[in-house]
Amino acid sequence: MKSVVSETRGMFTKSRGINGFNNRLFTVLVWGISGCIVLFIISLLFLILQKGLPYLTWDFIIGLPSEMEEGGGIGPALFNSFYMLLISLVVAIPLGMAAGIYLAEFAPNNKLISFVRICVEGLASVPSIIFGLFGIALFVEMFQIGLTIIGGAISLAFLNLPVMTRVTEESIRAVPGELKQASFALGGTHLQTIRKALIPAALGGLVTGICLIAGRAFGESAVIILTAGVTTSGEMWDFNLFSPGETLAVHLWYVQSEAIVPDAVSISDKAAAVLLFVILLFNVLFRIPLWIKDRKNR
Amino acid sequence: MQLETSAQPSILGAKDSDLGVSIKAGSGKTFDRKNRLLFYNRFFRIACIASAVFVCLILFGILFFMFRTGILTFRDVSPLTFFFSTEWSPEEESYGAFVFIFGTFALTFLTLLISVPLSVVIAVFLSEVAPAWLRNALRPILDLLVGIPSVVYGFLGLTILIPLLRDVTGTNMGDGILAAAIVLTIMVLPTISRVSDDAISAVPRKYRDASYALGGTRFQTIFKVTIPAARSGILYGVILGMARAIGETMAVVMVIGNTPQLADALFKPTSVLTSNIVMQIANVPFDSTWNYALYMMGFLLLVISLLMIVLVRLLQRKGAKS
Amino acid sequence: MKWFKSLTVAAMAIALVTSTVSVVGAASSLKGKIVINGSSALLPLTLQAANEFKKANPKVKISASAAGSITGPQSVRKGIADIGAVDWDASQDVPGFKKFEGQVAHKVAVIPFAAVVNKNVKVDNLTTKQLQDIFSGKVTNWKDVGGSDADIIVVNRAFGSGTRVNFQMKALQGTDFISKGNNYKEVKSSGDMKTAVETTPNAIGYMDLVYVTSNMKALQINGIAPTEANVINGTYKVWGFGYYMTKGQPDEVTKAFIEYIQSAKFQNGSLKKLKFIPISAIK
Q1: Chain C interface disruption, residue of B94, B172, B287, most C CBs within 10 A
Q2: What digits encode the pLDDT tens for the residues A30-53?
Q3: Cα A209 versus chain centre, distance
Q4: ipTM beyond 0.90?
Q5: Which of B80, B145, B251, B314 is the most buried (most CB within 10 A)?
Q6: Which family does it belong to (chain A) (predicted)?
């Protein structure tokens, strides 16, 4: 503040000119840099879609992968992606929501609870590969079930649990207090208040959170490589929880860097496009209704 | 008309009789209902507590597992060797992790060096310069970018960035710390700029008004008033980005070259903690020093990321005070 | 409700009958799951055999992946895999690797290895001495071995690779590899090696003959080309046996699979087509 004052006081016209120039330069620079970066990133994503999507065929999407010959598909990997996503959400959403509701609604305000909050936040920032190592220690070393879909899905759920907890806590806290008081005044129990008043009111935040963790689960690769392996059972619609569970994201990495198929480049182009497309679809499907709802409320 | 009048009393009558029944037999019933509700309420509360405890248990489970396995490294390797030796050849019993620790820090530093200035510029653009329509379009897009899988970024790095680097700089391979830092920059940029954007937008209007009233230009206002006022929020964003850069695995694995040698040049295949763990964990027996050393490296990563959360907490407390 | 019960019973009975019929109908009643991990050098063979085996035994599920030889016996020991493919006999001590207790080795193929270079490299032939110098970092420029003036990019397999062990013992006669440098890179699997050599100009690496594609060039060693004929007649020395490791004696399904891959029909048919060499051809 001081410097602004002193500058405006002394050498008024001259500094004004320099500042005016600086100001214009600055505006141009900010526009230029931001424009370049945003355009760059968006064009990269566009490039991925453009290189892959036009060449997609059903044979590729539901076809079996091939290790030697051309023309392998991504069917089982894509299936595993959705299957594991589903299992991990089934585990993570109830547990995460319950923990978040506890922190927002029931927890007393004391040292222990603020420590619990730090734990949740800490867990949310733990690198995903650590969950992979934990998954190995738990499922491969302790339970000795090897690299399986269930092991990968539960490790994924662990990864997403703290995020779900935090999102739930935040969105329930953001619900206006009057709503809660009104429900209590009508004689509702705490459970009824939460179910009938708080959760519907916090739905926007919850859906955004679920969308976030679903995207994360769908695109996660390090955890899956360590806990579910880099192979599929080689069959479509294999619901066996103890099959090896390579997902699409892992397959993209595997094909790009390890596989020996001659058409690895085209497979990975297409797999990347499918991966990106599904993530974008998640966001569009879940978020656009929320945006529209937001607009209406405003 | 007649029908209606005749119907009405009967309806009323039915209601009355229903009410009567429920009052007669209902005292016990309402009590049951109340009890049931209270029971559900209580049960729900316990389930919630159990879930919260479970989340904490996972953290402690992870800490315990990583520490218990990792600490066994020091049965065969002295901590001094592990932390400061650059010789990582497990087949010859030398377990110096310095290359990876250094690599992780160097990579994170380089990433922040590129990404922080760019992110702050984008944040300033979003919050101060851009017209409203562009702002409203860009914010959701940046949020979307946060959710793009890391393998996709790695794939881009491998197929587009590395050949480009090879052509532009004339190096032989292009793999290395610079390529990884550029990929990571693209990954953390949305995070840092969105958090900074929120922080800058939250700076009270009156600060800016005061600066303009004193004759400050927009440039002066932003650099001398707004950014300093949003400092702790921007720092929060930077730490979030840093956490992501340190923990990122697959995008880094695809472009860094995965060779255990010290990253003393921008273009030289090297390795970091995360990439080394994921590349080697499948090849090691459970009860070997090699495995323990990898877990120790995981434990290091864990400690670093937890320390950063403590840092964020301290920052927030400081921000709340001021 | 009764009709529902009887319906269920009927459905179950039908299912039972049809399943028995289908079992009888199929050529074999083998049923189970085999997980194979390990050597990427053996992967093409494993996959081919798995495809053929699955056709004959539709109820058997086989999933195979590869991440370097040492992963094979290691996964078998951890219980992740039923078969560990490895390029050396892991039931015995070999230089650099301790033996795996309680595992049984099954010889399945002869694997020829080749030194390969990027297509832009002008050199066609290297002597053992030149290979040693390149891979130990004494020679760093292609012009010193008869090529154009360009840095040599050495691509090496990471420790734990059977291809690396065999190449070091048989092509380099035990010379140590370099392990550092700006023009040095380690890769994890044969596929990785293939990508690296194909896409990096002036790169040299090594892999089994099966993986050599038209986008790279296999070198002659001491003037002898890496072909099956030269391996069989004993002039080309860079080859090794491929093994399947199992935890003790294999179970029924796994045993049937190993027997299939060792059968004369497979050894002289598909195995030869994939440029591997039947075990029986080597004396």
Answers
A1: B172
A2: 899 999 988 988 898 899 999 999
A3: 8
A4: no
A5: B251
A6: Belongs to the binding-protein-dependent transport system permease family. CysTW subfamily.
